[in-house]
Amino acid sequence: MRVFRQLQPAQRRNLSILFVAGLFFWASLSSLLPTLPLYVSDAGGTSQQIGLVMGAFSIGLLASRSWLGRLADRRSRQIVLLIGMGVVGLAPLGYLLSDWIPWIALVRAFHGISIAAFATGYVTLVVDFAPAEKRGEILGYMSLVNPIGAAIGPALGGSLQEFAGYSPLFLFSALLGLAGFVCTRAVQEQRPEQRGSLSADLPFWSLLSSPKVRSLTLVMFLVGLAFGTQTTFVALLIQETAVPMNAGLFYTAVAFASFGVRLLAGRASDRFGRGPFISISLATYALAMLILFGAHSIGAFLVAGVVVGSGFGTLIPLISALIADRSSPIDRGRLFSLVMCGFDLGIGLAGPILGTLAVGAGYRAMFGYAALLSLASLIYFLAFSNPGRGASLRFALGLGPDELSQREGVVDESVVDERPPELACPPKVRSSRL
Known about the structure:
- This protein has 17 helices and two strands.
- The chain has 434 residues and is mostly helical.
- Strands 1-2 form a two-stranded antiparallel sheet.
- It is globular, with a radius of gyration of 20 Å.
């Protein structure tokens, strides 16, 4: 890929190590996606209990996001990434100890810390190494760890559980996390100068008052409700409809579609803006939930997986790039953590709330609700992604700039980059409107 050949050797080395570590992380985490709901069900859990257990993942996410973001900005992105790798390697061993449902929920909450730490550490490190004008493209390529890992993990995890049982599956997931931990230790981090942002010393939750992140946080909350429905209940929906299909194949379809769009969307967003691609991704995700609502065959579930991957594979990298555009190096971790808290909260509430609805309506009805929630996220983004309805709509449709971006306008000379030349990024810029 030409953009990586243009980087300095130290940048390429660090990004390559991060990529391999990310593959191990997502393969470990996703190996349990199609199997953990079945594990809870086999342990005697009801649909409501399955939702509560899977939703407990977000307890760890929400509880750790604020301090992990602060740790990434003030101390080290690498330490945060190592925390994520350590937790993803240890948590599967906890499932081995007991199939008592409250214990599984407790381990699941601990497991949630892994993705909070990994996402914050990984994205901020990648952005630190990426030139600002190529940020979307490099984030798009580096985010390929998600679909590749998610293509490997569920297929192997589902097959391993089917032929060998749950214990070998949990050991396999733990070993993948350990391999990622070893890789992460080899990253050579360079820290930015700790000056240049008024938001750096504000209390974490008070950052919601900033228009830079407030609208994105609510968009991600609505998407998180739909995403939590998908990840928790797709395997059970397939089981309920009596379709003879390994649920891991659904996630493999998601991964392959996600891979394709990530190769294109990031680079295109550097040229045409983030807004229209985020809008398209939200509309696509709503369509995916609608397809799942009506799915009755293997083909329908696979098509839904492709559409899910196309929407979600565009959304997360470009939301990450948009946050990076709107932040300075010393508050980037906190702002990213805050926006993703909305996503975490949505995932956490999706399981218990929609799981309760499923008691009377069945699993299929939940995907109708998920489609409506995804549509609501699109409408909100069109109306509130920028200050003023007109500016917001123009940005979301690609007809105008992001007025909150620091990439356009004048150079922000208060952010001093003292890294060595081979690791330094172009100076951050601030919109002349701010």
